[in-house]
């Protein structure tokens, strides 16, 4: 019985020492007496394994403190290093070494024993000892470096534990998609305050124009290849795992997340590029922003105004809007910095156009189903004039000049003048047909129509001038013949009329002519001859055409180029100068 009481007393004293942490002097005295914390801990553990519990020991501690008036005291000879302490229990060589002070303590120990025997067993838990605590403090630095990943906590409530291989994109995406419904659009999010607000989802758009090709004047369409990018916030996809959290993860295109239903309003044909892999990027940032990027080839309609063709400036549009969501659900906006980017050399790589400017605008539209937010890109394209200058204007001008050669030919060279006029006219007509075949049939007059019409007019005018000269020359010949054969009279050098054929002999076929009396011509005769030659209207017509046709063509060119080219350049410069 005394041995049992001694064991219980040692157990209670050990628990009291752990909870109350005795002063350093007491610990020093215990070490000097050869009683180590490990032995006391072993004795305590041995007692717990025999039905005792730490919880019941702590429960009875207050009763023991109330029964004991003084702190526990041991004599130097009570316990020595020679005492046997084994795993099977605590054995002391002399039971009389430890005695109680008075009967009150014996009664208190009896009450403690009865309470311990009546207490239900509990799960044994080894309390930390003084040496184990010191060891933990010494290994704190090593624990921090080896358990960094284990100490990172996720912000999601339904988060799974971080796998042993660490944070991976697959793990993060799997955690984000728990309970995610891609059919429901995200709530509006204020990135500045990091709070949810009321209103539509703000979708920020920017694009990179890679190439522009096949600008078709007949069908009024053009082909463009671009990289289309959208970004918006989805608070449901936020993630945070501490310092080791990646800035973003890349999702596969098969991953179902909510996306705006954007479409191109003036699109005729379109396709995505899938060689070598689908050219699609879905990037989710840790703070909930989603970046969607896709490479597209589009055939877009471009209504053209061809009044100034081929010196025209066309504005082709790229309109982006939502098909189902109104402006109460989605609000499109351009990216503040570089909303539309261009590939290097794009403005000079077009075969027949030059990209003068790229502008951005808004095109919100009202329909029967609601108001829809819309973004517009304006591509200002100026037609390259050098091609048409070499292929149309210079050749047609040369044809007009060649038609003027007939003015310098003799009026009697009828075959040459006719061939020259007809050939130039047919050549100009063929050239005009080739130009009009590249243009759509429109109801208004184009600049090229004015030029071709003027050239045809000048060439046809030269042909008509030859016909007029031939007519006037024939009429003059008839007048001269009528004058010489009138009344068988001829004026002599003196201006006196004498009979030319006074008699006709029936037996002879020829007429008898009288020789003109030789005389020196007078001043009146010389004036008459000069005026008769000057009054040859056919020669006057050729002389007049040699001067007037070039002057009229030069005057037409001044009016033509001033009206069609320079006002358009000034107007375009003023339009681009506006903010």
Automatic annotation (TrEMBL):
<dbReference type="GO" id="GO:0005230">
    <property type="term" value="F:extracellular ligand-gated monoatomic ion channel activity"/>
</dbReference>
<feature type="compositionally biased region" description="Acidic residues">
    <location>
        <begin position="74"/>
        <end position="105"/>
    </location>
</feature>
<feature type="compositionally biased region" description="Acidic residues">
    <location>
        <begin position="135"/>
        <end position="146"/>
    </location>
</feature>
<dbReference type="InterPro" id="IPR044721">
    <property type="entry name" value="GluCl_TM"/>
</dbReference>
<dbReference type="InterPro" id="IPR018000">
    <property type="entry name" value="Neurotransmitter_ion_chnl_CS"/>
</dbReference>
<feature type="domain" description="Neurotransmitter-gated ion-channel ligand-binding">
    <location>
        <begin position="172"/>
        <end position="384"/>
    </location>
</feature>
<feature type="domain" description="Neurotransmitter-gated ion-channel transmembrane">
    <location>
        <begin position="392"/>
        <end position="485"/>
    </location>
</feature>
<dbReference type="InterPro" id="IPR006028">
    <property type="entry name" value="GABAA/Glycine_rcpt"/>
</dbReference>
<dbReference type="GO" id="GO:0005886">
    <property type="term" value="C:plasma membrane"/>
</dbReference>
<feature type="transmembrane region" description="Helical">
    <location>
        <begin position="450"/>
        <end position="473"/>
    </location>
</feature>
<keyword id="KW-0407">Ion channel</keyword>
<dbReference type="InterPro" id="IPR036719">
    <property type="entry name" value="Neuro-gated_channel_TM_sf"/>
</dbReference>
<feature type="region of interest" description="Disordered">
    <location>
        <begin position="74"/>
        <end position="158"/>
    </location>
</feature>
<dbReference type="GO" id="GO:0004888">
    <property type="term" value="F:transmembrane signaling receptor activity"/>
</dbReference>
<comment type="similarity">
    <text>Belongs to the ligand-gated ion channel (TC 1.A.9) family.</text>
</comment>
<keyword id="KW-1133">Transmembrane helix</keyword>
<dbReference type="InterPro" id="IPR036734">
    <property type="entry name" value="Neur_chan_lig-bd_sf"/>
</dbReference>
<keyword id="KW-1003">Cell membrane</keyword>
<keyword id="KW-0812">Transmembrane</keyword>
<dbReference type="Pfam" id="PF02932">
    <property type="entry name" value="Neur_chan_memb"/>
</dbReference>
<protein>
    <submittedName>
        <fullName>Uncharacterized protein</fullName>
    </submittedName>
</protein>
<dbReference type="InterPro" id="IPR006202">
    <property type="entry name" value="Neur_chan_lig-bd"/>
</dbReference>
<dbReference type="InterPro" id="IPR006029">
    <property type="entry name" value="Neurotrans-gated_channel_TM"/>
</dbReference>
<keyword id="KW-0813">Transport</keyword>
<dbReference type="Pfam" id="PF02931">
    <property type="entry name" value="Neur_chan_LBD"/>
</dbReference>
<keyword id="KW-0406">Ion transport</keyword>
<keyword id="KW-0472">Membrane</keyword>
<feature type="transmembrane region" description="Helical">
    <location>
        <begin position="385"/>
        <end position="409"/>
    </location>
</feature>
<feature type="signal peptide">
    <location>
        <begin position="1"/>
        <end position="20"/>
    </location>
</feature>
<feature type="transmembrane region" description="Helical">
    <location>
        <begin position="543"/>
        <end position="561"/>
    </location>
</feature>
<dbReference type="InterPro" id="IPR038050">
    <property type="entry name" value="Neuro_actylchol_rec"/>
</dbReference>
<keyword id="KW-0732">Signal</keyword>
<dbReference type="InterPro" id="IPR006201">
    <property type="entry name" value="Neur_channel"/>
</dbReference>
<feature type="region of interest" description="Disordered">
    <location>
        <begin position="26"/>
        <end position="55"/>
    </location>
</feature>
């Amino acid at each position: 019985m005394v041995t049992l009481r001694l064991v219980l007393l040692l157990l209670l004293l050990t628990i009291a020492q752990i909870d109350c942490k005795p002063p350093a002097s007491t610990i020093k005295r215990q070490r000097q007496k050869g009683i180590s914390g490990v032995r006391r801990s072993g004795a305590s553990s041995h007692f717990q394994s025999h039905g005792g519990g730490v919880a019941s020991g702590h429960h009875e501690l207050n009763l023991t403190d109330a029964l004991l008036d003084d702190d526990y005291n041991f004599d130097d000879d009570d316990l020595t290093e020679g005492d046997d302490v084994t795993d099977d229990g605590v054995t002391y060589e002399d039971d009389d070494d430890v005695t109680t002070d008075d009967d009150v303590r014996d009664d208190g120990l009896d009450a403690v024993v009865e309470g311990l025997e009546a207490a239900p067993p509990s799960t044994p838990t080894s309390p930390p000892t003084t040496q184990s605590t010191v060891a933990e403090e010494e290994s704190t630095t090593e624990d921090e470096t080896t358990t960094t990943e284990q100490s990172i906590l996720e912000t999601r409530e339904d988060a799974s534990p971080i796998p042993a291989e660490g944070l991976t994109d697959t793990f993060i995406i799997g955690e984000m998609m728990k309970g995610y419904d891609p059919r429901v659009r995200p709530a509006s999010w204020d990135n500045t305050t990091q709070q949810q607000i009321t209103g539509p989802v703000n979708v920020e758009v920017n694009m990179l124009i890679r190439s522009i090709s096949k600008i078709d004047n007949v069908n009024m369409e053009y082909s463009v290849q671009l990289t289309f990018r959208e970004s918006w916030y989805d608070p449901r996809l936020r993630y945070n795992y501490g310092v080791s959290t990646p800035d973003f993860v890349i999702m596969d295109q098969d991953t179902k997340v909510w996306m705006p239903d954007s479409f191109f309003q003036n699109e005729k044909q379109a396709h995505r590029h899938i060689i070598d892999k689908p050219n699609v990027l879905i990037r989710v940032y840790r703070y909930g922003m989603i970046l969607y990027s896709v490479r597209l080839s589009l055939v877009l309609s471009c209504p053209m105004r061809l009044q100034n063709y081929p010196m025209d400036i066309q504005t082709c549009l790229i309109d982006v809007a939502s098909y189902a969501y109104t402006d109460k659900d989605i609000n499109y906006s351009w990216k503040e910095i570089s909303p539309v980017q261009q590939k290097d050399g794009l403005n000079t790589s077009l075969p027949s156009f030059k990209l003068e400017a790229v502008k951005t605008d808004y095109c919100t539209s009202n329909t029967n189903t609601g108001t829809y937010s819309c973004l517009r890109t304006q591509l200002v394209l100026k037609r390259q004039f050098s091609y048409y200058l070499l292929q149309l204007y210079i050749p047609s001008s040369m044809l007009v000049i060649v038609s003027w050669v007939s003015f310098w030919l003799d009026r009697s060279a009828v075959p040459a003048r006719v061939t020259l006029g007809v050939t130039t006219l047919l050549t100009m007509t063929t050239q005009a047909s080739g130009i009009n075949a590249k243009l759509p049939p429109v109801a208004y007059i184009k600049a090229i129509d004015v030029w071709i019409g003027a050239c045809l007019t000048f060439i046809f005018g030269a042909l008509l001038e030859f016909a007029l000269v031939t007519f006037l020359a024939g009429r003059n010949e008839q007048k001269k013949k009528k004058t010489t054969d009138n009344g068988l009279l001829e004026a002599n050098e003196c201006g006196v009329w004498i009979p030319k054929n006074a008699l006709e002999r029936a037996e002879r076929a020829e007429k008898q002519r009288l020789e003109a009396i030789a005389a020196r011509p007078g001043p009146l005769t010389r004036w008459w001859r000069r005026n008769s030659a000057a009054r040859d209207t056919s020669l006057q017509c050729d002389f007049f055409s040699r001067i007037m046709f070039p002057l009229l063509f030069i005057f037409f060119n001044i009016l033509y180029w001033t009206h069609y080219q320079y006002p358009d350049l000034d107007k375009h410069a003023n339009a681009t100068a506006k903010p």
